[in-house]
Amino acid sequence: MFSLPVRVYWEDTDAGGVVYYANYLRFMERARSEWLRDLGFEQDQLRDEAGVVFVVRRVEIDYLAPARFNDLLDVSVRLVEAGRASIDVIQEMAAGPTRLACASVRLVCVDAARFKPAKIPAALLQQITR
Q: Residue 130 pLDDT more than 90?
């Protein structure tokens, strides 16, 4: 499992100092990008060299508790399953011991030019399924 610390800034919140619900998805996207980077894969290089990008196909998210201004969040990524052209992950956000959100995310690998499903590059598939 990979995790990324994320600090909540004022710009992430509504007038009451609570994180706007769509920003949870932004934090999760950031964690997935850093997860790939930690595995040795930059998304722009995957696009430029392998001709593929990842798109979100489906997200199911449960909001469990509010994140607030200045919280230090832990945003995790855990692989559930990897297929030939898709990756399923579970992502959680927590502030200390308090779980704030849990999401099931399906990513699909697509041809960068046509946005049609494409095989996940073998080196990446091998690395994420270790």
A: no
Question: DSSP characters for 24-92?
Answer: HHHHHHHHHHHHHHHTT--HHHIIIII-EEEEEEEEEEEE-S--BTT-EEEEEEEEEEE-SSEEEEEEE
In terms of residue numbers, what domain contains 122?
Answer: 2-128
Q: What is the CATH number of the domain that holds 90?
A: 3.10.129.10
For 83-100, the DSSP string reads: -SSEEEEEEEEEETTEEE
pLDDT tens per residue across span 33-80: 999 999 999 999 999 999 999 999 999 999 999 999 999 999 999 999
Q: Give the pair of three-digit tokens for residue 31.
A: 């964690």
Per-residue pLDDT tens digits for 112-129: 999 999 999 999 999 999
* Active site (catalytic) residues: 14
Distance CA 68, CA 118 (A): 39
